[in-house]
Amino acid sequence: MADDGVQLAPVPPGKPVKIGALVKSDQFSSKGSGDPEPKRMVQSAEYYIDIPPWVDTALAIPMASSDGFDSTEEEVSAIIDTTSLSSGRHQVYVRGQVAGGQWGVVSSIFFRVQ
Asked: Which residues lie closer than 8 Å to 26 by C-beta, 6 or more apart?
């Protein structure tokens, strides 16, 4: 989702921030066999602001797919409302889920409200 070299311009308080990611299910491999597992349908994606998904108090916010969740690779997006965010740097975490309920790796990016 993010490149370490990305520098986002600061966002004025209250201005929406659009985020996007590509969620793919081809990152699995069989348990030690070396054979790839079959690709699975992506069934959802969500994002979190400032608190990562592995923390109990994290709030999952659903993301939308550009064409519905109907394939093994999905472009997802969301609009973040910055109205209630404090000034300063915020971290957004994104993750996707495949059929069967398995969550993929978490990606993140920073943006600044100023």
From this structure: 36, 39, 72, 73
For 74-96, how does the pLDDT look when each residue is reduced to its tens digit (9 = 90+)? 999 999 999 999 999 999 999 99
Residue 39 has which token pair?
């690709």
DSSP 8-state secondary structure symbol assigned to residue 103: B
pLDDT of residue 2: 41
Please report, for the chain, the start and end positions of each structural domain, with discontinuous segments joined by +: 17-28+37-113
- The correct answer on CATH 2.60.40.10 for the domain covering 17-28+37-113 is yes
Inter-residue contact 77 to 20 (CB < 8 Å): yes
Give the pTM: 0.84
What is the distance between the alpha carbons of residues 42 and 97, in angstroms, rounded to a whole number?
6
Output the CA angle 78-18-16, nearest 5 degrees.
Answer: 105
- CB-based contact 16:80 (threshold 8 Å): yes
- Residue 70 CA to residue 81 CA, distance in Å, equals 27
